[in-house]
Amino acid sequence: MAGLLHLNSTLLPSASLLLRNRSGGQAVRRRRACRVEAKIREIFMPALSSTMTEGKIVAWNAAEGDRLAKGDPVVVVESDKADMDVETFYDGFLAAVLVPAGESAPVGSAIALLAESEDEIPLAQSQAASFSSSSSSSSSSSPPAPQETAAQEASPPPPPPAPVAVSAPAPPSPAAQGGARVVASPYAKKLAKELSVDLFSITGSGPAGRVVAKDVEAAAAAPAKKAVPVAAARPDVPLGSTVPFTTMQGAVSKNMLESLAVPTFRVGYTITTGALDDLYKKIKGKGVTMTALLAKATAMALVQHPVVNSSCRDGQSFTYNSSINIAVAVAIDGGLITPVLQDADKLDIYTLSRKWKELVDKARAKQLQPQEYNSGTFTLSNLGMFGVDRFDAILPPGTGAIMAVGASQPTVVGTKDGRIGIKNQMQVNVTADHRVIYGSDLAAFLQTLSKIIEDPKDLTF
Amino acid sequence: MHSGVAVSAPASASAIAGGGARSEAAAASRRPGGIRLCGLRGEALARGSLRISHAPAAARRVAAPRAAAAAPQNGAVAGGGFDYDLVIIGAGVGGHGAALHAVEEGLKTAIIEGDVVGGTCVNRGCVPSKALLAVSGRMRELHDEHHLKSMGLQVSSPGYDRQAVADHANNLASKIRSNLTNSMKAIGVDILTGFGTIVGKQKVRYGKVGFPDKEITAKNIIIATGSVPFVPKGIEIDGKTVFTSDHALKLESVPDWIAIVGSGYIGLEFSDVYTALGSEVTFVEALDQLMPGFDPEIAKLAQRVLINTRKIDYHTGVFASKITPAKDGKPVLIELIDAKTKEHRETLEVDAALIATGRAPFTNGLGLENINVVTQRGFIPVDERMQVTDADGNVVPNLFCIGDANGKLMLAHAASAQGISVIEQISGRDHILNHLSIPAACFTHPEISMVGLTEPQAREKADKEGFEVSVVKTSFKANTKALAENEGDGIAKLIYRPDTGEILGVHILGLHAADLIHEASNAMALGTRLQDIKLAVHAHPTLSEVLDELFKAAKVNSGVSHSVNEPVAA
């Protein structure tokens, strides 16, 4: 397995991330909890029809803390065909709802926790907290360890929900905000809930200081809060000792050294992401992730610039790859792996998103087959979710180029008509092997990519 | 069905009095909180064209021979020394339906109207609101890029012209109004302009408000004065930023943020219009649940489909105790108090407020004191035959009240049906209208419709009377036509008696629900049992198969009474 690993060398943030993962912060604690408390059961999203891949929770029939008997209808699920009552298979107490009504979850993922006795409810709820802090604002709700989500959900705009930012949700009357008042329009409130933005922290730009939808969007895109969840988890490392590399870390190290033999150079570009963010918001309910969108956009740009998808194997020739396989760097427990979205240019965005989910699940379970992580022809690495605005990636051996994606954030820009406006922009930085890919190749590629991202209608054809 | 030729003829007695100023003498169209489809009987076909009678079965038999000779014309001479056989106060949909049927029965008929013909429904209710909802439906389709794209369509940035939308609503109202007027003129109904007051037994005066200078006598009188929007105290209407449906239908503005007080039919339909045109909406509902009048299951789904996915939020269990229109740069202020404790909850600041808290009967100044009739919260008390009852509970002979003014079922088509029922009685055929078979609809996107009892009502009745109730449901997602339209949101629900196969209620939320309900309402009106109707055939693929699905899913324990395959008559 060793030599096969691809790797994005990132700067320190990512390195410290890996360390944390290895020696386990919450992630390990959670796992331990699971082992001990077998009496807390997960309620899974059922497959209600043969064609169902994900289901939307219509309503929870029981509230957290309610006692349930085997056979009680606990949740109503909307599939592609109909709404169905789903029954529990066990007696117990509904301890924690992981996927609230209105949200979707893939078939087989946990949607709630069932505690066998009342005493176990608090425990289950603490377990649930680690579930929910790990699922980002997208529909993915499989149980990933908290930090693992970071690289997996390569989504620049929506920050992982910051604990401090979760405002008191009062479902029946969302406008009622405790004692203090904040005047926010109905859509602004809806968005705030969706994007986990605290309405009290926003200054409204509407009539009489009212908070309107665009204020919430701007607040959600603001990078300030992004560092919070990362800072919150303290790396738990045995200070003052030397810890040998694991096999995976050894492979990373080897690859890093090998990369020094390749004459690389870098070209950066700033891309406006407003249209991409809008598109993402519109289709994320269908399970589309930002990672898939970026991979798709990159693949479409590569179709027009085959040289950027090529590599130099022997120092004497171009190897033009027949398929466009986008490898995406993912931090996993104690290391880094690059699952590959094969033929990313040919698959539609929904298939690609499903595929990505499968790959990440397999990566976690350490079940990736070699061709699923070593067949990449172009690599993506995204640290945007941490608020990193730009970074530099090391080229994985055997490939021609890797693109480092920074956070999308509101940026003051001058427009052509002489005005000043705010646009969401992200910086990308491509590292490439100059033996086969030249500056003008990368420049042209990046120009094409920015056009695709700034007018992303073709991503969902 | 008989058919007759309706010949245009000028009004025989020139009894049109000078400009009455009764502002709201409108016949019924809405139940509290409702804007409705109006059953405009024959209005579009009246000008010398073939008219199909919609009269009940009993009427058909009598009418047929006469219709062969000539079209119905207003009776030339009233019997018994009266000026008229029938005078109807109020020319809304209820009065219009009664007038047409009365002429058909050979009665010399006059109708008194102080405002404009057509009443609430045509001028300030169902008709113009349908024009706005037609626009909102199309806007929704055009804005739903995902939906369009999944069907392979591309549309770029649709927009609208507010004034043109408003004109569409206004033009539609004018057109229907003139159709309605012509349909009455064509058969010679005397349209008397003014404000009608009952001055004694079988005696009506009419004229300007306060100066009823013309007096006529009539063998029978029908009150059909309808209703006006109900505005709770504490709410100040300015017609610009705080207004009722009367103003809203003119669509003089599309506010960024509008609060809608009341989440019944009117509120729900307007939320559909406003959100489609780009507004954000906040509902204020006094009861604990939105859409309180609907079957709970339908209300729950409606909330998911029509509220949660849109730019709408809501406050339930609160009263709007005080609403101040916007002025001096300040927004509209709405004070919310807890519906139970009356404690102040919070104050909303919005751009506009629509008051859709139901409708109040318009019965002031009718001279009811002259005949010892006392209204109840403004409604005129009637028995099941729409005969007005006096303070002592006795029937006032020859006086009827139909439509919103009696409050039995505030729907345009219910008023019309009540009017026809009254004419049947006047013509010597006893008739009692079955209100449970009258359908109702809310024209949101998708539509909601219902007939008969809700599930809780049916279960309560079953407990009391000791029978069993069964419920079957089907989803629009299981209907081919709905899927072809990419409109799979919706359910249909049938509540029935498994022992007899009697339909107790049908509730539909989904594409074209308002048109689908009639198969169920007709079955209920005619007493058709499930074991019979389930054998009837529906064209495939149609939305009507949603109902077919329900009928077929119902499990009835009794045998088939007769087969629909057998011809009923040659």
From TrEMBL, chain A:
It comes from the Eukaryota. Gene3D superfamilies: 2.40.50.100, Chloramphenicol acetyltransferase-like domain (3.30.559.10), E3-binding domain (4.10.320.10). GO terms for biological process: pyruvate decarboxylation to acetyl-CoA. Residues 183-220 form the Peripheral subunit-binding (PSBD) domain. Residues 40-115 form the Lipoyl-binding domain. Its EC number is 2.3.1.-. Residues 155-174 have a biased composition (Pro residues). CDD domains: lipoyl_domain. Its cofactor is (R)-lipoate. Keywords: Acyltransferase, Lipoyl, Transferase, Transit peptide. Residues 124-154 have a biased composition (Low complexity). Belongs to the 2-oxoacid dehydrogenase family. This is Dihydrolipoamide acetyltransferase component of pyruvate dehydrogenase complex. The gene is LOC100846462.
From TrEMBL, chain B:
Residues 438-549 form the Pyridine nucleotide-disulphide oxidoreductase dimerisation domain. NAD(+) binds at G262, S263, G264, Y265, I266, G267, L268, E269, E285, G358. GO terms for biological process: response to arsenic-containing substance. Its cofactor is FAD. It is found in: Plastid, Chloroplast stroma. Binds 1 FAD per subunit. Keywords: Chloroplast, Disulfide bond, FAD, Flavoprotein, NAD, Nucleotide-binding, Oxidoreductase, Plastid, Redox-active center, Transit peptide. One of its GO terms (molecular function) is dihydrolipoyl dehydrogenase (NADH) activity. One of its GO terms (cellular component) is chloroplast stroma. PROSITE patterns: PYRIDINE_REDOX_1. FAD binds at K130, G196, T225, G226, S227, D404, M410, L411, A412, H413. Its EC number is 1.8.1.4. Homodimer. Part of the plastidial pyruvate dehydrogenase complex (PDC) containing multiple copies of three enzymatic components: pyruvate dehydrogenase (E1), dihydrolipoamide acetyltransferase (E2) and lipoamide dehydrogenase (E3). Lipoamide dehydrogenase is a component of the plastidial pyruvate dehydrogenase complex (PDC). The active site is a redox-active disulfide bond. This is Dihydrolipoyl dehydrogenase. The gene is LOC100837564.
